[in-house]
Every structure is written in structure tokens, then in C-alpha cells.
Design goal:
heterodimer, A: 60s Ribosomal Protein L30, Chain: A, five-stranded mixed beta sheet, B: mainly alpha, Hypothetical protein af1432, 16 helices
Chain lengths: ~180, ~290
């Protein structure tokens, strides 16, 4: 069986000390088709981590967006669209498909969207991030396969490119988001 | 679980804020702009890490400089006293905080990044609300310094176990139960020991629970800056978002959702400039 060749995306370069991990920072997205790697993002709070994975092509990507809508800062949106859910999500889909995934095979999962304690409805960044996630998926006619969102805790999310499994770590505990 | 006496005793074992930082904070709190440039140059020149950071910043694109600046004197004159003091404080607190927050499950460097993010937010808010920008910057930079004391007394996984069993109370309540004092109060005690100005001590103490009738907007500003740093994804450990945004402080600051989100975006862009333009739309950039 031949090994899927790695597309040398600039963004695939692992950061120092991370070995086989491709790290997604805040307001960042990464795509890879190297099955020896995992894509990881640390400490999702009100931010949302979205993963796309094609189990046949073994291509996956992850976006870590921070705010729901780019209208609050067009300048920042132009410099880094991955900061915002409304711009980052379509780019993630485009990049994963350009790396060889088929849209109809994509498994989409999400985690994060936590809320600051006792938010009385004034800011609700976590909830609004969750809303924009669902709004865009609705427009694309794509269903979430699994999600773990809300609450007050932070989450670390890892997508394993060999099999598409997604692990979460929160408050010292590990759990599987996909497959359930 | 540690009784209060043990927690306070841990403060004695922590490294002191570098003497240069204390002198720079006094200068900044006293108005900064009037500080004698030669005094600042002398203070900065004695610290290699600070000197390197000053030269790096003076030569950075952010300052739009043409031609390289090699000497400290030139760099200081180009940057100005205020920027210089800030760089020195950022560098020195970053050194102290680099390994801090382990007990909260934070990775190396996460707390120093969050300190700087909060300081940038506090500076913007202080400008909008007429607070002293220098004092707000320093207070926000030091706001979580008390986490060093919690690290010193918390057993392995202690905070993660507490967080996993937490209900809907603010995380400070659990810290007080477990250690006799929360990280905000411990941070204020440290700042007092370092003889920092009382307004900085008060803002560090109140950065999660601002007083209800403040005479000055400083503590509200540092409180909001802390929330903004969290929304920018900075400094999130097992305590996550278990800190409320005080509704009265929000009202006093008159902070709209759009204004707040614009500051969240500014903070992240300032902290993680390497992501800027890294996520451009197609076509994909290839290296080979």
C-alpha cells in the first residue's frame, strides 16, 4: 500500500518541540494530508475549533476562530480572516478541498464556544460563535457530526489524520469527540 | 489543601520583581514623560535581555525605521521614554511569568502572553476612559502575578480536580477555599511587598472583583482587560472562563459589544503577528 504523499503546505511545518503535531494557534487554520500527523489546538475558551476530515483522502483541517463576525474590524479581517467565523469557515472548506478532500465526504466537528461566567446577555461571544458556526454550516447544507460546546471550561482539541479521530482534553480529563 | 499561613509563607520564597522594574514603574506611575532619558538609559543598559528587546523593537517594522539602529542611545531616543519603560517591564515580567501557571495547566509562556495581552487591552481602555495609561498597563501586566504563589502551594492536579468538580461560582471562591486566599489577593500582597504604588496594588486585587464605587476607572479598566485577554484565548487554563464580567463595571465603562470585540481583535493581532496574513484565502502557498 502506498503512503499518501504529503503536500508541502507552508502551514504544515510543525512548531518547535511539537514533533508530529501541527499546531493551530488562536485565529489560525491548518490543513494537512500527512497521516503521520495530528492537528492540535490548545485552550479553546469562547473561541471555536472546527475540524473537517475526509476519511478516504485522509485530508483534514482545523480552524480556531475567535470572534463571530468580521464587521467589527475590517482591517483585522483583511489581515487575518481566520480570526472570524464568518470568513474563516469558508476558507477552511476551500483549503481542505484544494488539498484533495471531497466536500460530500467531509466529517465536520466542533468544540469550544464557552461563555464567561454569569454573562447577562451583553457580550455572549461564546454563544454567538456557536450561532455563526451553525449558520454557515446550514448555508452549506452540512451537518455537524459531533460537537462539544458551551459551559465555562477551556478545551484542547486534537484531530488525528490517520483515522480522523478527535480527542478533547478539558480540566485534566480526556474524552473522545469522534467517533463517539 | 494549604492553610492561609502556608500560602502567605510561599510569597517569601518567590523571586522579587527585578529592581530595574520597580524603578521604572515608579517613573511611569510618576508621569513617565518627565523621566530623565539618561536615568532610563542607565537602568536599561544594565540588563542584557532588556537591551536586546529594546534594539529588536527599535529595528522592527512597527516603528517604520529606515536603516538599522545598533546603539542603545539611538534606540532609546527613537522609541521614547514611555515605550522604553514598557519594553523593559514586558521583558522582565515575561521572564518571571514564563513558567508560571503550571498548576492551572497552562503551557510555558501562556501566562506571560496573557499578561501582555491584558496590558495592551488596558492601555486601549485607559485611553478611552481617561485612566492613567501607564499605570493601567503595568497593573494589567502584573494582574496574575499571584498565580506564582498558587503554583508554589498547589499539589499536582489540585486545581484541575477543583475545576472539574466546580459548580457555577467564580473560580476565586475555590482558590479561597483551597488556599485561604485567591490569586488576586496574593498578587496584591506581592505588589505591596515590592512597594509598588497603591493604585497598582488595588487594581491587581480587584481585577476579577472590582469595587462597587471606585473613585478612579483604573480597576474597572484592568478588570475589563482581563476579560478581553480571555476572549482573545489568552491564559486559559483549567479555570477557563470561570470569572464573571462585572455588570456594574461594564456599565461604568459604557463598553459596547462592537467596541469590546474590536479590542479583542487588536489584542490578538498585537500578540500573535505571525498569524497575520498566514491564513490568506486561496491559492495555497507552497514551499517546494
Amino acid at each position: 500500500m502506498s503512503r499518501t504523499p504529503s503536500i508541502p503546505l507552508r502551514t504544515e511545518t510543525p512548531r518547535a518541540g511539537e514533533g508530529d503535531k501541527v499546531v493551530v494557534g488562536v485565529a489560525d487554520l491548518q490543513v494537512s494530508r500527512d497521516p503521520s500527523k495530528s492537528i492540535i489546538t490548545y485552550a479553546l475558551g469562547s473561541c471555536i475549533g472546527v475540524t473537517l476530515y475526509d476519511p478516504v483522502a485522509k485530508v483534514g483541517g482545523m480552524l480556531h476562530f475567535m470572534l463571530p463576525e468580521s464587521q467589527v474590524s475590517t482591517e483585522k479581517a483583511a489581515a487575518n480572516p481566520a480570526m472570524f467565523g464568518d470568513l474563516g469557515m469558508p476558507i477552511l472548506f476551500d483549503k481542505v478541498i484544494a488539498a484533495g478532500a471531497k466536500r460530500e465526504r467531509l466529517i465536520v466537528c466542533a468544540a469550544g464556544g464557552a461563555e464567561v461566567l454569569a454573562d447577562d446577555g451583553h457580550f455572549r461571544i461564546g454563544s454567538r460563535n456557536r450561532t455563526v458556526l451553525r449558520k454557515i454550516l446550514w448555508k452549506l447544507n452540512i451537518l455537524l457530526a459531533a460537537d462539544d460546546t458551551g459551559g465555562q471550561h477551556s478545551r484542547t482539541m486534537t484531530l488525528r489524520l490517520a483515522d480522523g479521530s478527535i480527542a478533547l482534553r478539558s480540566q485534566g480529563k480526556d474524552s473522545a469527540l469522534w467517533p463517539r | 489543601m494549604a492553610p492561609l499561613n502556608d500560602t502567605i509563607a510561599a510569597l517569601d520564597r518567590l523571586p522579587a520583581l527585578p529592581a530595574t522594574s520597580m524603578r521604572l514603574i515608579s517613573m511611569l506611575a510618576g508621569g513617565g514623560r518627565d523621566a530623565d532619558l539618561r536615568d532610563v538609559e542607565c537602568i536599561v543598559g544594565h540588563d542584557e535581555a532588556v537591551t536586546a528587546a529594546v534594539l529588536r523593537r527599535a529595528n522592527s517594522a512597527a516603528f517604520g525605521m529606515r536603516g538599522r539602529i545598533a546603539g542603545l542611545g539611538d534606540a532609546i531616543r527613537r522609541l521614547g521614554t514611555r515605550e522604553l519603560c514598557r519594553i523593559a517591564l514586558e521583558t522582565q515580567t515575561s521572564g518571571m511569568l514564563a513558567n508560571a501557571g503550571r498548576s492551572y495547566g497552562l503551557r510555558r509562556g501562556a501566562l506571560s502572553q496573557s499578561a501582555l495581552g491584558g496590558a495592551i487591552a488596558a492601555d486601549q481602555l485607559a485611553r478611552l476612559h481617561g485612566a492613567n495609561r501607564e499605570v493601567a498597563f503595568v497593573a494589567a501586566l502584573l494582574r496574575d502575578i499571584g498565580k506564582l504563589a498558587i503554583d508554589a502551594v498547589a499539589g499536582p492536579d489540585a486545581l484541575e480536580r477543583i475545576a472539574a468538580a466546580a459548580d457555577t461560582r467564580p473560580f476565586l471562591a475555590y482558590e479561597r477555599e483551597a488556599f485561604g486566599a485567591d490569586h488576586a489577593a496574593l498578587g496584591a500582597m506581592l505588589c505591596e511587598r515590592w512597594s509598588l504604588p497603591s493604585e497598582i496594588v488595588g487594581a491587581v486585587r480587584g481585577h476579577h472583583e472590582p469595587p462597587s464605587n471606585p473613585a478612579e476607572p483604573l480597576t474597572d479598566v484592568v478588570h475589563a482587560a482581563d476579560c478581553i485577554a480571555r476572549w482573545a484565548g489568552l491564559g486559559l487554563g483549567c479555570d477557563g472562563l470561570m470569572y464573571p464580567f462585572d455588570a456594574a463595571a461594564r456599565e461604568r465603562l459604557g463598553l459596547s459589544r462592537d467596541a469590546l470585540e474590536a479590542i479583542v481583535a487588536d489584542v490578538l493581532a498585537a500578540i500573535a503577528p505571525d498569524h497575520t496574513a498566514a491564513n490568506s484565502p486561496l491559492p495555497l502557498r507552497r514551499t517546494a
